[in-house]
Automatic annotation (TrEMBL):
Family named by the database record: Belongs to the UDP-galactopyranose/dTDP-fucopyranose mutase family.
Domain UDP-galactopyranose mutase C-terminal: 184-389
Taxonomic source organism: Cyclotella cryptica
Assigned keywords, A-Z: FAD, Flavoprotein, Isomerase, Membrane, Transmembrane, Transmembrane helix
Full protein name: UDP-galactopyranose mutase C-terminal domain-containing protein
Interval of the full protein contained in this chain: 126 to 541 of 541
Length: 416
């Protein structure tokens, strides 16, 4: 955050290379062109710069960082994210070591509460969730296992053998049974995806575990932290090299005939790369955020993230069309006289956030993947190009491994 004002005021950020004239940028030949400056693209650029190769990073938006982009909210001076809360967690030593090269991280264990039947309960489901919702007094893991065993649905194949859950409805029923499924997972998933969980692959609801103890953390990874100065600063530092040129406000498809590079790394939506080919639409879910401020208020809600799985408010009966509310002041215990929060809704149209994992989209993606394989000198990297929901650490690890592969280097050489 040195020469980079971390504010999303009227002008947004200036690109680190804004001093270079556009025509100059396109006069040069680069070792690598990278489309997109999110975690995937920035990791690729950083890695090649460390190998002494030149990189041109082409970013469509007016800022770097992709959906990790954060900034200081002018009115409250609280650091917030433009595209929703981002919680870093990993079990990968390699990724943990890597992210520490670009700034300070503060250990932070994320906790989420769900507002269910008018009560705030821990999510993922644990002993406290069940006790609160069903007025029970479960005391230990053994009792919780017993309770869960009675709730859980077992699926068996035609030979009567237990089989794996095949869609997200089955995942939830196998983990928590029908009662918690109807209270927490079914209605939330309908709001978030506008699809029945039975029409979504198992990977969607597999993200949320069930706990037989009182662990109220959202993630159970060994490493959980937030960047002290925000994600934008981390990504800024990744891209901070004389060998890396970043152009923002630049649509790759408008300049692709003008750029010169030996290799291309594309991190945008795979269907956009091939100009959709007249095929059916590859679906993505998007999010919208409604900002609200409360003056002279310590906190609006009891946790950084409160999920609202249910369709109607327990007390008023009014419709609740949002999925969750994020109050950023809770992250790293920020201080302000005021508080700002963002009401999150899921939408069909808009910036692509989530690939929609159903049979139709997976099939369609495979056809694009075939095309991608034949595309010489181009690598498709990251969540949008792989049509796969990557957590932040997975995006970084995947990008590091792409560079491993493309440079033929082995793990012991990677500490640069
Ligand atoms: N989910 C749910 N109820 C919740 C939280 C999550 O049904 O209270 C489901 C929902 O389908 C969601 C998925 O679990 O899309 C993954 O949740 P996660 O919090 O990982 O979503 P993300 O933060 O990545 O949007």
């Amino acid at each position: 955050s040195k020469r980079y004002p971390l504010r999303a005021s009227s002008t947004m950020e200036k690109s680190p290379t804004s001093s270079i004239r556009q025509d100059e940028v396109f006069d040069r030949t680069y070792d690598n062109c990278i489309v997109g400056s999110g975690l995937s693209g920035s990791t690729i650029a950083q890695q090649y710069a460390a190998l002494n190769q030149t990189c041109l990073v082409i970013e469509k938006r007016s800022h770097i960082g992709g959906n990790c982009y954060d900034y200081i909210d002018d009115e409250t001076t609280i650091r917030v994210s433009l595209y929703g809360a981002h919680l870093f967690h990993t079990n990968s030593e390699r990724v943990w070591e890597y992210v520490h090269r670009f700034g300070e991280w503060v250990n932070y264990e994320h906790r989420v509460l769900g507002k269910v039947e008018g009560k705030y309960v821990p999510i993922p489901v644990n002993i406290d969730t069940v006790n609160a919702l069903f007025d029970l007094n479960i005391q230990n893991e053994e009792e919780m296992n017993e309770w869960l065993a009675k709730e859980q649905v077992k699926f068996s194949d035609s030979n009567g053998n237990v089989r794996e859950a095949q869609n997200s409805e089955e995942v939830a029923l196998a983990r928590v049974g029908p009662r918690l499924y109807e209270l927490i997972f079914h209605p939330y998933t309908l709001k978030q995806w506008d699809k029945e969980p039975s029409d979504l692959g198992p990977e969607v609801l597999s993200r949320i575990p069930v706990r037989n103890n009182r662990d109220g953390r959202y993630f159970s990874d060994n490493y959980q932290a937030l960047p002290k100065e925000g994600y934008t600063s981390i990504i800024q530092n990744m891209l901070d090299s004389p060998l890396i040129t970043v152009v923002t406000d630049t649509d790759y498809f408008r300049v692709k005939d003008r750029i010169r590079c030996r290799r291309l790394y594309y991190t945008g939506p795979i269907d956009a790369y091939f100009n959709h080919l007249g095929w059916p639409k590859l679906e993505y879910r998007s999010l919208s955020f409604e900002r609200a401020v409360q003056h002279n208020t310590q906190y609006f809600q009891p946790a950084a993230v409160v999920n609202h799985p249910q369709r109607r408010d327990h007390e008023s009966g009014q419709e609740v069309d949002y999925t969750r509310i994020v109050e950023y002041k809770h992250f790293l215990n920020q201080t302000s006289d005021h508080t700002v929060y963002f009401i999150e809704r899921s939408t069909d149209e808009g910036e692509p956030y989530y690939p929609v994992p159903n049979a139709k989209n997976k099939e369609l993606y495979k056809r694009y993947q075939e095309m991608a394989r034949k595309e010489e000198g181009v690598r498709f990297v990251g969540r949008l190009a792989n049509y796969k929901y990557f957590n932040m650490d997975e995006a970084i690890l995947n990008a590091l491994e792409v560079v491993d592969e493309d440079t033929g280097r082995i793990e012991k050489d990677v500490n640069r």
